[in-house]
Amino acid sequence: MEAGSSAKETVLITGGGGYFGFRLGCTIYRKGVDVILFDVMKPLQPVPEGIKFIQGNVCCLAEVEEALKDVICVFHIASYGMSGREQLNRKLIEDVNVKGTENVIQACKSTGVSSLVYTSTYNVIFGGQIIENGDESLPYLPLHLHPDHYSRTKSLAEMKVLKANGTELGNGKGVLRTCALRPAGIYGPGEQRHLPRIVSYIERGLFKFVYGDPLSLVEFVHVDNLVQAHILAFEALKANKKHIAAGQAYFISDGRPVNNFEFFRPLVEGKIDQVTEKMKVHYCKQRVIFRYNGTLKTDLFSPVGLYSWSTPFIPMKFVLYDPEGKKLTL
Ligand SMILES: NC(=O)c1ccc[n+]([C@@H]2O[C@H](COP(=O)([O-])OP(=O)(O)OC[C@H]3O[C@@H](n4cnc5c(N)ncnc54)[C@H](O)[C@@H]3O)[C@@H](O)[C@H]2O)c1
User: Fold this and answer.
1) Tens of pLDDT along 20-50?
2) What value does the mean pLDDT take over residues 298-326?
3) Pairing between strand 220-222 and 185-187?
4) What's 99's DSSP letter?
5) 53-93 confidence digits (pLDDT tens)
6) Given ligand 1 and candidates 14, 20, 221, which is best to mutate, with the most ligand atoms within 8 Å of its CB?
7) I need a surface site. Which of 16, 57, 206, 260 has the fewest CB within 10 A?
8) 221: Cβ below 6 Å to ligand 1?
9) Mean per-residue pLDDT, 270-275
10) Who's near 147: CB < 8 A, 6+ residues apart?
11) 324 vs 330: CA distance, rounded Å
């Protein structure tokens, strides 16, 4: 996707009608690559001229295969069950996140798509335990310990995507290269999933402040940083980058760990001014704690000169502790 590259490439984005997928599609298109957005739902915003939208379902292999013709890379972003009422629909969560991912892998193989970038989540290693200074060498959280269907199925899907790395493509077109990106919570302009919900809780006086050890830190990722990470991953699956991302999983965050309270403080304080009468603030011990010791790891893409964006791509480093606070040996 370097500026001025001659051959026109086409990429397909499953979940391209959603918040992140649409943003990724628009950015890639502006870089001169043809983009197909593939989603069960039409995007909320008008689709810019030149970008193709296909209404389709990842649960239907034939629809995915049909859409993948002449595509060089799939960004598999479609997912279901992350928050709200969706979380209760176990069957659909399994179908979309697991079966849908199997279909995408199968369709890549049968149609000869050589690159697959999967949008995973940090939940694949996280089940509420304290993690300090961990990195991608952390093991998957055992599947039975996942607190929700979404996290478990995202984990299963990521494993399938990474296992598919190196498998033969149909028609002797080489091998499939895959990688997985694990974002923290996504925020940014127009975000509809998290912030509006929190605002509505505050307005209804239902917001419970989760405030614990001030040294407890969490990570978020701005949508445009996540876009950049996906573009880097796409490039890093190519032969001219020696496929260095192939078979890899990467945590993606802003690289600025922050206390949860501090992250939401401007929003909450702004809202409190408006709803002081209704507002109730509860303090409780923070359950989810990422402790960060300031060690930065930047070696994932830099060896091939891909480390080139303005906000650094700095995966988190963690150390695992057991419930008694003893360091776990990995
Ligand atoms: N939002 C976050 O904080 C967060 C955090 C970590 C990981 N992620 C991951 O990032 C990705 C993007 O998240 P988002 O917030 O943009 O989600 P989103 O809900 O806005 O987008 C997901 C899209 O997938 C589509 N989709 C659902 N089922 C489908 C199906 N069967 N076939 C085709 N499309 C289908 C939906 O219609 C939606 O447009 C997801 O894979 C999610 O798991 C998100």
Assistant:
1) 999 999 999 999 999 999 999 999 999 999 9
2) 34
3) parallel
4) I
5) 999 999 999 999 999 999 999 999 999 999 888 999 999 99
6) 20
7) 206
8) no
9) 56
10) 127, 128
11) 16
Q: Residue 2: its pLDDT value, please?
A: 55
> Residue 78 and residue 60: Cα distance in Å, rounded?
13
Question: Which residue reads 């057991």 in tokens?
Answer: 322
Ligand 1 center from residue 39 Cα (angstroms): 10
Q: Which two tokens stand for residue 157?
A: 């899907």
Asked whether the whole model's pTM tops 0.85, one would answer no
Would you say 36 and 16 are in contact if contact means Cβ atoms under 8 Å apart? yes
Is 19 part of the annotated catalytic residue set? no
Best residue for ligand 1 mutational test, from 40, 66, 221, 226 (most atoms within 8 Å of Cβ): 40
**In angstroms, rounded to a whole number, what is the distance separating the alpha carbons of residues 175 and 177?**
6
Let me know: does 36 contact 71? Beta carbons within 8 Å: yes
Residue type, 22: F
Measured CA to CA, the distance from residue 297 to residue 315 in angstroms comes to 6
* Residue whose tokens read 């089940």: 127
Domains and CATH numbers, the chain: 10-189+220-255+293-304 (3.40.50.720)
**Cβ pair 309, 228 in contact under 8 A:** yes
Nearest CA to ligand 1 atom 7: 121
Catalytic member of 19, 118, 122, 150: 150
121 Cβ below 6 A of ligand 1: yes
- Using CA positions, which residue lies closest to atom 26 of ligand 1? 78
Q: Is the pLDDT of residue 1 over 50?
A: yes
Q: What is the DSSP code string of 177-192? A: EEEEEEE-EEE-TT--
Report the nearest atom of ligand 1 relative to the CA of 150: 43
pLDDT higher at 184 or 66: 66
